[in-house]
Write a structure and sequence with these properties.
The structure holds three protein chains of three kinds. Chain A has one domain. Helix content of chain A is 73%, strand content 3%. Chain A has eleven helices and two strands. In chain A, helix 9 crosses helix 10. Chain A is globular and about 60 Å long. By secondary structure, chain B is an alpha/beta fold. The N and C termini of chain B lie far apart (35 Å). Chain C is an alpha/beta fold. Chain C is built from 26 helices and twelve strands. Classes of the chains: A mainly alpha, B alpha/beta, C alpha/beta. Chains in contact: A-B, A-C, B-C. At the B-C interface, strand 2, helix 8, helix 9, strand 10 and helix 11 of B face helix 16, helix 23 and helix 26 of C.
Chain lengths: 286, 234, 630
């Protein structure tokens, strides 16, 4: 039974990691805390829902549409809303992105109402058995897609020229400018990539979680929890923290009850912050 | 090459640079001598487009560059090695150097420039895969200089390259700067360490409280009482 | 006279707050009035922490909820009447606040803000879990017996009246705080934590104090709201939206001002209520969507809130007048100011150098302009620094630095950029803990004590990168230092003005903001802020940087004046002429080590110093470079 729980938690961890990594990337590069992060996730869940419902395509196929569209949406939002508040005090950032979050969440409520919607993947009911471990196929597929996406992101950042420029901007924006890096472009790009990752996570979550207008709130809390736990600027930290949090969540639900899992996760975060005020992989900077 | 006329810079209501005129010609090293807070860095930052100027103009290769973005200016080949190194501390030496060649102008020449940098600073080749933040002060300054060279500069601006370095290292570094200059790259070097900068350059300026107060050849300034007094403590 | 004029609008407002509920007969509008008052109280509460002290919480509903649940649970399970429950609630809220504050305020801004929201979610999710006690998601209800002891009234007007009275009280409290020592310390730590702590503010303690005051008011508002609604559920008590509204209203009105939260709440609550009623059924969420739009527009177009509309016009008018006067002065003094100034500088420079270096060929001559070393042997050690080492990563910033500062002297500390001078000051000042070594001031150890303790002990600090408190006037800046000596704001005002006089700051410019004064005045300002706290020793870090020669002379005179008044000075300086002229003794730091110390003449004669600090001699280096290059 425990093996089952842990395997499922690992699948969830990979989804959490993909869902959160965009937030980390955006904070690391733009120094902006995106309080509307969860709403982008919510919007991507709805996109997957509408695409699968209206056209009958598999949610996994809809990735090919949703991810590029959200990348462009991210670039656009960065241009309109984020650029004016870069380098502004934290208050300005929180207002701007929290404002965006309120708009997106309530626009969704107005447009699609408060009802709960579920996306059906064609193999929603199928389960893969390995000895005495039973894993829903959706989890396995989502796990694989999340790992591939994370791998692509790390490859992009570590190996490509643009990726290096993104990292350079996050470490020293002025130096990057002096070397000829157009930081404005990089900001837009990083925001777009961050949102695209989130959208990807949203789509692969859609067959697993029910979609409502308020789901962004739930998951943005979880994303913030993971980011802070992992050490804010560290992408590796985020991935590790995502898996740890998924395990904590699963174990708390298993040994205690599902109703208390959120409280336990936040308690674990508080404990970590007391021991390491900058999170698991955090550095002093920041 | 670089021609600055009557430039004013304000930070809020406070004037940081006042009617500065300065020029750098082909193949020459020009120094900009001044103490902390005198306005050296402000001027260099303005030339690179990081801070805006309020009056005057800056010409590079006879074209106005004030108002351009820093990356546009880098694309033109006007390259600054900023004060206090400002490396990308979590990236490797090689990655730092590669990023120096980010501009379109430099990317094609990347391999050639890299060879040149490694020839100039062999230690950087040894440490190519070390993370920049773990280098010693002297190596970091070499890396900063190397990164600047990777940008294929047609004019190089150095902001206080001697910052925090032991004298021996400083002299070594200034030898390298002289070598760079011999390859035909004009250099504007901002310094407060007279001992290294006066012998290196043929002529230069003294900047104090945002104004150019003296201008002349190194020999003239070496014998100038004010320079001896203010910068040599004699 | 001016005071009364300032008071009048408040008196009118307070009267209106009390009268308006009495004029309204419709229960619906009465409810709206009550809601507006509640939101206003909550926004004022949030503003005390978030606006005054910059303690930016988005978890304030914790305090609201703890109070609400205490009242209802005490009543349900122990039969304790709600009015008594309020008091127990406040005590509990204080306990929660102190605990959270201690835990979370160690985190930096953004971490703190996120952690407050995490903490709120713990409360929100765990409350319904204890279903037997808390009644799960549907919550607990309060009895219906009337009477103040039950916080229950048959006529809703009473809730509004109580709300009005509390609102008046907290507004007065907010005004009082803003003018008190506490308020000055709040604002100082909001503007710059390092400057605040070096001026005597115990940053952690005052942040917790701000949070606690704010939490208590929130708890009181919660008590009234609980009395009104009589049903406490997690969604009512630990509402994330309420936390957001608290800062939203404040920001829209004007964060950090007394009137801002009131304006925000008075304006937005009715609008929100109207939207909810008009469209709530058909278009749920429209009011929140509009909030989002308002928030974005405000922050992009009017970042200081609606209050600033009235404010800015006044300040801008004042500022323009000042700039005009200043320009007129310049125009009157010379036709071509640019050339004139440059010539003057040159002339002055040349004249001085001729005067002071008698023999330009003799490189190492220092002119000794005053009798040096009034130092009595060891008797008067003010500061003893012993064996201080500090490593940052791989960099040895300080290595076994040992020196003393004697009472009444001026000690110059020189060394190349990056030699560890500022780090040394940061260690003495308590910003950085040394890896090893001890520091004693007046015989008692101060190693590892916080900057505010070091300030209290009598050590002031001038930072190399000036740290003015940007949104406070000159005199208010200095008052922060003066509050180290007194809690009386009038006395602090007097001390501040005295300190400004001592550094020669022009009195008609006391009410400008730090962004409006010139560099020399900014240095005077920093000196005055430190002086106002009556220090025995001042650590001065590169105060001459960026000054004109005549301004340097002025600062030298100010420092000498302070020295003659018995204040000991340790100065880091690059301007050799100034430091040689000023110092009794000089210490040379190089690569984190003490190279030597002694009189200025000794130091300049020291071979090590010449080699390390000045490099090799000028002639040698010229030979080396020109010989090879040409």
């Amino acid at each position: 039974m425990l093996a089952q729980i842990i395997t499922l938690a690992i699948c969830n961890g990979s989804i959490y990691a993909l869902m959160t990594i965009g937030l980390t990337l955006i904070f690391g590069v733009l120094n902006i805390v995106n309080f509307a992060h969860g709403e982008f996730l919510m919007l991507s869940l709805f996109s997957a829902y509408w695409l699968t419902t209206l056209s009958g395509m598999s949610p996994y196929v809809s990735l090919l549409i949703v991810v590029p569209v959200f990348f462009l949406l991210g670039v656009l939002i960065e241009r309109l809303l984020i650029r004016p508040i870069i380098d502004k005090p934290f208050v300005a950032q929180i207002c701007s992105t929290k404002g965006l979050s309120l708009i997106m969440m309530n626009a969704s409520l107005i447009a699609w109402g408060p009802s709960v919607r579920t996306v059906r993947a064609n193999f929603a009911k199928s389960v893969i058995q390995f000895k005495n471990i039973y894993i829903p196929t959706t989890h396995i597929v989502s796990f694989i897609i999340a790992l591939v996406a994370l791998g692509l992101l790390f490859y992009l950042l570590q190996k490509t020229y643009v990726g290096k420029a993104i990292r350079a901007v996050s470490q020293n924006a002025i130096s990057a400018q002096l070397a000829g890096v157009n930081t404005k472009q990089i900001y837009g790009l990083a925001f777009g990539i961050g949102i695209a990752c989130t959208a990807g996570a949203g789509v692969i979550m859609s067959p697993i979680y029910a979609t409502t207008f308020a789901i962004g709130q739930t998951f943005s809390s979880l994303a913030f929890l993971i980011v802070v736990f992992g050490g804010v600027r560290s992408l590796t930290g985020t991935v590790v923290a995502a898996f740890i949090m998924a395990l904590v969540e699963a174990l708390a639900s298993f040994y205690w009850t599902i109703h208390i899992k959120d409280a336990v996760m936040y308690a674990v975060l508080l404990i970590i912050l007391l021991v390491r005020p900058t999170g698991l992989f955090g550095s002093k900077r920041g | 090459m670089l021609q600055i006329t009557e430039v004013d810079i304000y930070y809020g209501d406070v004037q940081a640079i006042k009617e500065v005129d300065l020029n750098v010609g082909e193949n020459e090293i020009v120094f900009l001598l001044g103490s902390n807070g005198g306005g050296k860095s402000s001027l260099l930052r303005a030339i690179s487009g990081i801070v805006p100027i309020q009056n005057g103009q800056i010409l590079f290769k006879n074209e106005r560059i004030d108002g351009l973005t820093p990356w546009d200016i880098a694309e033109l080949g006007l390259i600054q090695v900023p004060e206090n190194r400002q490396l990308f501390p979590l990236m490797t030496v090689l990655e730092n150097l590669q990023l120096g060649a980010y501009s379109r102008r430099a990317r094609g020449r990347k391999e050639k420039e890299l060879e040149l940098v490694f020839e100039l600073f062999p230690i950087l080749k040894e440490r190519a895969n070390q993370v920049a933040g773990t280098l010693s002060g002297g190596e970091q300054q070499m890396l900063a200089l190397g990164r600047g060279l990777m940008s294929a500069p047609s004019l190089l601006m150095l902001d206080e390259p001697s910052f925090g370095l032991a004298p021996k290292v400083t002299y070594m570094l200034f030898d390298a700067i002289a070598a760079i200059s011999r390859q035909g790259i004009p250099i504007l070097v901002a310094e407060q360490n007279v001992n290294v900068v006066l012998p290196l350059a043929k002529r230069g300026y003294v900047i104090e409280t945002g104004q150019i107060v003296l201008e002349g050849t190194s020999k003239e300034l070496t014998n100038n009482d004010h320079v001896r007094q203010a910068y040599l403590g004699m | 006279m001016g005071q009364d004029a300032k008071k009048a609008p408040w008196i009118v407002l307070f009267a209106a707050l009390l009268v308006v509920p009495l004029l309204i007969s419709s229960p619906y509008f009465q409810d709206i009035v009550f809601l507006v008052y509640m939101q206003a109280i909550l926004s004022v509460a949030w503003n005390i922490a978030g606006g005054f002290a910059g303690v930016f919480s988005i978890g304030h509903s914790i305090f609201f909820g703890v109070s609400a649940y205490t009242i209802s649970l005490m009543s349900k399970h122990y039969g304790i009447p709600p009015l008594i429950g309020v008091i127990i609630g406040i005590v509990l809220v204080i306990a929660v606040c102190q605990t959270l504050g201690r835990l979370l305020l160690r985190l930096q801004d953004m971490f703190f803000t996120l952690a407050t929201s995490a903490a709120l979610l713990i409360f929100y999710h765990s409350t319904p879990y204890f279903r037997n006690i808390t009644g799960g998601w549907s919550g607990v209800s309060l009895g219906r017996e009337l009477g103040i002891i039950n916080l229950a009234f048959d006529n809703p007007v009473w809730y509004s009246i109580i709300g009005a009275m509390v609102l008046i009280a907290v507004t007065l409290l907010s005004i009082w705080i803003k003018n008190s020592k506490t308020g000055y310390y709040f604002m100082a730590l909001r503007e710059d934590e390092a400057a605040a702590s070096a001026s005597g503010v115990n940053v952690q303690a005052y942040k917790i104090r701000a949070l606690t005051i704010s939490a208590i008011i929130t708890a009181i508002a919660s008590a009234i709201a609980t009395g009104h609604i009589r049903q406490v559920s997690p969604d009512f008590a630990f509402s994330a939206l309420r936390s957001i509204e608290m800062f939203l209203f404040t920001i829209v009105g004007g964060i950090g001002t007394v009137a801002g939260p009131l304006i925000g709440a008075f304006l937005l609550t009715p609008i929100s209520e109207f939207l909810r009623v008009q469209f709530g059924g058909r278009i749920a969420g429209l009011n929140q969507l509009i909030f989002g739009v308002v928030l974005i527009i405000i922050i992009l177009r009017l970042p200081e809130g609606l209050v600033s509309l009235a404010w800015h016009r006044r300040r801008a008018a004042k500022h323009n007048k000042y700039v005009k006067a200043e320009n007129a002065k310049i125009n009157a003094s010379c036709e071509n100011p640019a050339y004139k100034v440059q010539d003057e500088v040159l002339e002055k420079v040349l004249k001085e150098s001729n005067m002071e270096v008698q023999n330009p060929d003799d490189d190492c001559r220092i002119e000794v302009t005053q009798p040096k070393s009034p130092v009595q042997e060891k008797a008067d050690k003010l500061l003893c620094v012993a064996g201080i080492s500090k490593k940052f990563g791989g960099l040895q910033a300080l290595y076994d630095v040992t020196f003393d500062v004697y009472n009444g002297e001026i000690l110059g500390i020189i060394g190349p950029n990056g030699a560890g001078k500022s780090t040394l000051f940061n260690v003495i000042n308590g910003f950085i803990k040394p890896d090893s070594g001890t520091i004693k001031f007046l015989g008692s150890p101060i190693t590892g004590k916080g900057p505010h303790k070091v300030f209290e002990a009598g050590i002031g600090r001038i930072f190399q990168h000036l740290k003015p408190l940007r949104n406070m006037t000159i005199v208010d800046n200095v008052k922060v230092g003066a509050f180290g000596l007194t809690s009386d704001r009038f006395k602090a005002g007097r001390l501040a003005k005295e300190a400004l006089e001592r550094v020669g700051f022009s009195p008609n410019r006391y009410n400008l903001l730090p962004g409006q004064i010139n560099v020399l005045e900014q240095k005077q300002l920093e000196l005055a802020r430190v002086l106002a706290g009556d220090p025995k020793l001042i650590l001065v870090d590169e105060i001459m940087a960026g000054l004109k020669p005549e301004e340097i002379d002025e600062v030298v005179e100010i420092l000498r004046g302070l020295s003659s008044q018995g204040i000991t000075l340790a100065i880091i300086e690059h301007r050799m002429r100034a430091v040689m002229k000023l110092s009794n003794r000089i210490m040379v730091l190089h690569h984190g080590r003490k190279l030597c110390e002694g009189t200025p003449a000794d130091v300049v004669a020291d071979d090590d110093v010449v080699e390390a600090y000045l490099g090799v001699t000028l002639e040698e280096s010229q030979k080396a470079a020109w010989g090879s290059d040409n």
